[in-house]
Amino acid sequence: MTDPDTASGLVIVDKPGGWTSHDVVARVRRLARTRRVGHAGTLDPMATGVLVVGIGKATRLLGHLALTEKGYDATIRLGASTNTDDAEGEITATASAAGVGDAELAAGVAALTGRIEQIPPQVSAIKVNGERAYKRARAGEDVALKARPVTVSAFTVTAVRRTGDFVDVDASIACSSGTYIRALARDLGAALGCGGHLTALRRTRVGPYILDGARTLDELAADLAVLPIGDAVAAAFPRRDVSEDDARKVVHGGKLPAAGLGPGPVGVFGPDGTLLALVEEQGHGARPLAVFAG
Q: Does the keyword Manganese apply (predicted)?
């Protein structure tokens, strides 16, 4: 049985290194005593930081939260490429980065900022003919993935360390859903002619949920802090308060008139402040994406 006070809501986890996102979900399932748990946006095992986990009805939010902007602190090593584009892979090529100056680095970063076309890493969860790309790549296949449009709204170099043939670049990055920081590291190294890969990654933000509000698994084991589903929606999406008549409509799956709060999901709340649904405005109407009351 699940404690009714923790039946639906979000848990903002500070994921430890070496854990998969699935490992974290499994741990939260045990802590919350329910199998109805999921996460909004995978973090690689090497990465740490914000992983948004949903419990109960809040799992219906996760697909929408996964589409929000994310923030990262990353370290990129210039001077070596790997087959996974990060430090967990095998080095496939090296070339001295000692000659990469600050101006060249700044130009390379600027070229990867804004709306760009990005080819995902071969070792990724993207499906190719029904099979995960990483399975094909690990079987020795050269996987050809198509470039996808992503937006890197900020790519700010915060520190540069030069050691022999390597240059380690610390950066803070804000980007759209679907952006691979590993691929940014790879492409920066390729553009500078020396290769590059990711050596550290910490996610600092998923939409409105930031690292300061995240808790470690040990902290959650002592006190499973759950953000109520209504508070979670109000933090992440525009809020719309409706009348009793409109509340009855949306609870039964009916459309509401558009209120000019889109694009994107809008949280609908009843007269008593209870979360009723997420809706999406299309033309003159707003259709339910997920109904939480009733």
A: no
